[in-house]
Amino acid sequence: MLKPEVSLPIAAATATIVFGIFQSTQPSVAQTRASAPGNPAIDSSRKTATWLSASVVAGISLVAADPTIFIVGGAMVVALDMIHRHAGAVNPATGKMVAGGVGSATAAYPGNGAVVSNDAGAAGA
After folding, report:
1. CA 112 – CA 107 distance, rounded (Å)
2. What is the pTM of this model?
3. Segments making up each domain of the chain, as ranges
4. pLDDT one-digit tens code per residue, 76-124
5. DSSP characters for 70-89?
6. C or N: which end of the chain has fewer Cβ atoms within 10 Å?
7. Are the C-beta atoms of 45 and 26 separated by less than 8 Å?
8. Within 13 A of 83's CA, how many CA atoms are on the CB side?
9. What is d(CA 122, CA 94) in angstroms, rounded to the nearest whole number?
């Protein structure tokens, strides 16, 4: 285990690396919120960023053999994943979260008789 004066800066650097991975692999949260909910391309890039970030955090914390790095880096991965996951589930017209499948690209597939409308996620809809 590393000394705190060494461990904390490495943990902060790891969190910064995670932030950089999320910034470089997907659109901004504002762009994600402005797109249709359930966009499969955005969801795929979020998953890629999450797995890549988790791998980097695990690798750095294993090499350094320090739990602080794992805790701080892991918390950053979870926080950014949830921020982007929420942004991808919000209907920009209503500002409300849409249940899985309601606003997704698969919901508008003509074979299942559903149509995505601007009301998706609206109260009483």
Report:
1. 7
2. 0.76
3. 4-112
4. 999 999 999 999 988 888 888 887 655 455 554 445 455 555 555 555 5
5. HHHHHHHHHHHHHHHHHHHH
6. N
7. yes
8. 16
9. 6
